[in-house]
Amino acid sequence: MKKLLLLISLFTTIAFAQDKVQISGKVLDGEMDNEPLLGATVLISGTTTGTQTDFDGNYILEVSPGTYTLEYSYVGYNSTKENIILSANKTINKTLEANSLEQIVIVAQTNREKESTLLITQKKAVEIKQQIGAQELAKKGISDVATAITKLSGISKQEGSNAIFVRGLGDRYNSTTLNGLPLPSNNPSRKNISLDIFSTDIVEYIDVNKIYHNKIYGDFGGANVNIISKNHHGKGTLKIGYGSGYNFNAINEDKFYLQDGPNYFGFSNQKQPNNPLSGYKFTTSLDRETKSPFNQSFSLTGGTKFDFKSNHKLSVFTTTSFSNNFSYVEGVTKGGVTTDGVARSDYSYDSFSYKTNTTGMLNLSYWFNHNNTIKTNSLFINSSNKNLSDYSGTIDSFDNAENGGGLIRRSTFNKTQLIVNQLLGEHKINDRINLNWALGYNSVLNNTPDRRQIMLVPTDNNNPLTSQKTVSDISDSNSHRYFEELNENEFATNIESSYRFSKNEDNEYKGKFSFGYSGRFKTVDLEATQFNFAINRTINQPNVDVNNLDAYFNQTNLTAGYFKIKTFRGGINIQNALDPQTYSGTQTINSGFGNIQYSINSKLITIIGLRAEHVSQEIEWMTSLDPEGDKNSFDKVEIMPNASFKYELTEKQNLKLAGSKSYTLPQFKERAPFLYEDVEGSKYGNPNLYPSTNYNADLRWEYFPKSGEVISITGFGKLIQNPINEVIIASAANDISWVNSGKQATIYGAELEFKKDIINRTRTKKELELTNKLTFGFNGAFMVSDQDFDKNKVTTENDLTVNFTNDNGKLTGASEVLLNGDISFFKEFSKHGNLSTTIVGNYSSESVYAIGSAGKGNLVNEGFFTMDIILKSKISKRISTGISIKNILNSEIKRYQDNETGKVSVKSFKKGVNASLSLKYDLF
Question: Which CATH architecture does the domain made up of 237-307+317-342+368-922 adopt?
Answer without folding.
Answer: Beta Barrel (2.40)
